[in-house]
Amino acid sequence: MSENPSRRAPLLAVVGGGQLARMMAQPAIAMGLPLRLLAEAEGVSAAQVIPDQMVGDYRDLALLREVTDGAAVVTFDHEHVPTEHLHALQADGVAVRPGPEALVHAQDKAVMRARLAELDAPCPRNAVVSSLDEVAAFGLPSVLKTTRGGYDGKGVWVVRELAEAGEAFAAAEQAGVQVLAEELVDFRRELSALVARSPSGQAAAYPVVATTQKDGICHEVVAPAPDLDPALAAQAQQLALRVAGALDVTGILAVELFETTDGRILVNELAMRPHNTGHWSQDGAVTSQFENHLRAVMDLPLGSPEPRAPWTVMVNILGGPDDAGRLWDGYPHALARDPQLRVHLYGKDLRPGRKVGHVNAFGDDLTDCLERARHAAAWFAGELGNESE
Ligand code: ADP
To answer: What pTM was computed for the model?
Structure first.
């Protein structure tokens, strides 16, 4: 029988071989969508599961062209591909999703703040500063951030005295970027509003979640955010949808928010890819953020973001200061203790502070979900010994 090429699935290129690309592979298998990966090194998380792959530097345009050769669309596991390369790929006829004009708002915090101000989106008071005098004029305490290249709390300094500001300027100078000053927000907690948006303009908003950070790294997510004023939740979802539309985001947009002690929401930052605060959706929503990211970048109708259970708790598994983590060896106890538990391991080696996996627990009772997910994550991370069994 001859193959009908019109029925063949288009190829999706994915740049970046971390756990986000790895978790895109799962719905891609189910959808029959072929992926081709550009991995930064052999054997990294996504390279273990996507056979059609190349290994090399995402800053190398020739390599990006090779990876996207024959691909209908290219998407990303991270936001670091240089803007000029994204324009070059577009000129080659590849659909870049999210596109360079949108992505720059997730790459550069000063650009993001300026655009959000134009959109009247509520933000902490902020200014680009270029000297200690300007920091003093801005006012202390404040939060200094390098405008580009930060992640997981790296590139963020809480400055209470002027002498502490030097480190931020040194880091910015070394990286060839600027420093953004923000007011130190007095927040009750951090929230995240996640939406998927397709090039056709269809959008789907996930329930707003509460997130807890540990040392600048997302540690725990509760979906939906407990005791969140429904009006504030709706405002956060509408804000995320409005930003996604205004910036022409395609794929997942995560809007990280502060809920202030006086009941307002302020935007902390934007991410344009599946996000740690959306991992709960793999087991807790009708359509996971990873599937909706794929549907969105392929311009297919989006799936329902509705929760499957009243509560879902996600807890990350982080490498500890020693190598006590169990990973595979954690399964017998964790799975026997909780047959409802969902575990996601990324195929990464344990290193202090490194995200190596997460667990999801869903159900009718929040306290029970929290206990189950925390216990399992601590167990995999090696924080619980035999005495706790
Ligand atoms: P990253 O790019 O590393 O994710 P963020 O800008 O999200 O950096 O900042 C990391 C963490 O620092 C936030 O999750 C929050 O806990 C804290 N933070 C950032 N900005 C502020 C601020 N203006 N006021 C108070 N805390 C902040």
So the answer is: 0.96
